[in-house]
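During the no-cost extension, the postdoctoral fellow (Dr. R.K.) reprocessed legacy sequence entries with the updated structure-token encoder. One reprocessed record is reproduced below for audit purposes.
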Amino acid sequence: MPPPKVKIIEESGVAAPATAALPPEPIRLSALDAQWVTLPLIQRVLIFAFAAAAAPPPFASAVSALRASLAATLARFPTLGGRVVHLPATGDAAIDCSAGGGVRFVVAEAEGDGADAARLAGAEDHDAEAFRALVPGLDAGALPAEAMAAQATRLSGGGVALGVAMHHAVVDGRSVWAFLQAWAAACRGDVWAGEPPTFDRAVIRLPSGDELARDVLRKYAPDLPVATVAGHLVRPNLSRRTFTITAEDMHRLKHRIAAGLSPAATTPSSFVAVAAVSFVRAKHAAGVIASAADEVYLFFFADCRARLDPAPGERYFGTCISGCLARAAAGDLLATEGGGLGAAAAAVAEEVRRAAEDPLAGWDWMGTVEGVDMDRLVNLAGSTRFPAYEVADFGWGPPSRTELVTMNHDGQVVLVAGKGGAGGVQASVSLHPAHMDDYKSHFHSYLT
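Re-encoded structure tokens follow.
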């Protein structure tokens, strides 16, 4: 099916009200933020498709509400309305909340069969080209760089797509959903009950502090203010598919894995359970495993907010994640199904335990994956606790579908909590097209 034709109707800037209190000085990036200066892009699309019995909101009214509520929300989250800037006098990168024209807001209209809201929301296989057309890019190739852009698109069938792009040096996944929750509440006219976010990077106590952040910039972004590195944004031709795991499915999967663990082991968490399935199946069909002794890897991030000492707290708005790399021998993961899942779960659980014990051990996540054979690596992003559907009601009900558009790795899995909460999980998978059906077959076999 041909991709939708997306026509830009209007582009403008949305800024916090003039009365908003903005941080008076640029906020210097911590070393945790600075690693993302050359890998800036988080793109997420929310599709709102309306049943025949439900009248969709008039598009002009929806756009007006989105724009007004975005301005109000930026007063609480001023870093997203600013710019990532270079401070040549010191060598720092920082977020200047007073720079630029706020958030670039795009209004668009999509035409053609590829723009049907129900199809985009309901298909198991992603229409990756269509999704990319429904999210804005970021002007982030050089500093100053945009922190955020948004796009509202009218879809055929009366649907609406809301696409957001955010700079990863300004937010991590948890911050994305905190912001979207506040924006959605403001859009539907509710008083957001959350505590005001905090932005002070000084609470991230890394050795040598500011100088370490400068070292990171010199290593990974040596040509500032130019902030691009060749090859980082390559988009290979991958198959992408979404799997829905119900609470009942998850219960069965956890007990199946527990049966392959030692009697003293605890029942795995939802995250560990889905990670174990992906670790076992996502890459082994790709023909890159030569022998049972080959080492294979699963990489994921751990949220550090509650684990640092002193802890920056749940309200910290920024990038506060540390890299984790689970390792296993291919033969152990390809043992009998129960044993293989148990070995995978044990390896992932050990990395989770290590991150809780020493949360900053993997702070230099780019260094962690240096030298790792990427053909043998599964990259797990997101969290089973991200309330992607629960918090994103902008006044028209929860989204029918939400996906991370920036999935560029062969062997990437993105997790969010499933629709309706109650323990379900959505897992979106990016693989070489020749290996997706094998992954799907085994994935479903583990849930039955």
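The CA atoms of residues 65 and 187 lie 6 Å apart. The mean pLDDT is 89. The remaining legacy entries will be reprocessed before the final report is submitted.
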